[in-house]
Amino acid sequence: MTRYAILCGSAPDGFTQKKINEMHDFLTSDAGGFWAEKDIVIFPNGVTEAMLSFVLERLKADKTEQILLYICTLSPVADDDKSVWLGGEEVRKSVIEAFCANGCGQVIYDCGGELVRNEKIELEKEVFENKITSLSFEREGE
Prior knowledge:
- The protein is built from 4 helices and 8 strands.
- A hairpin with a 2-residue loop joins strand 5 and strand 6 (89-92).
- The strands form 3 sheets. It has a 4-stranded parallel beta sheet with strand order 3-1-4-7, covered by helices on one side.
- The model is unreliable at 134-139 (pLDDT under 50).
- The protein has helices at residues 18-28, 49-61, 93-98, 119-141; strands spanning 3-8, 15-17, 40-43, 66-73, 83-86, 89-92, 105-111, 115-117.
- It is globular and about 35 Å long.
- It is of the alpha/beta class.
């Protein structure tokens, strides 16, 4: 069976929502179905409607049998809301709900406000900044 989980958060750069991390850990555990890392896509800092639509359409075209879309917002999502805000990007709920029409998609809306520093992103940023600094020193010494 082919299945994918898409975890969408709305945290600022350098942070993730604790609930995104918890959902990831749950999915990869025995209790959560032991999902493979390669089958989980994470957008911790939001996603544009165009990118989300592209990913969902691509999965449908590949005849994915199960798609779990987990949306973690900083504010509640009401039934009558027309849009969801993910990292400052507006995503229309009609786009999200359209992908569920054939029955292979499932959406979970979760309001999780607690943010945690994303240490992997911070480490990558530090390494990148150190490389840039060393390159600029090398150019000065040429």
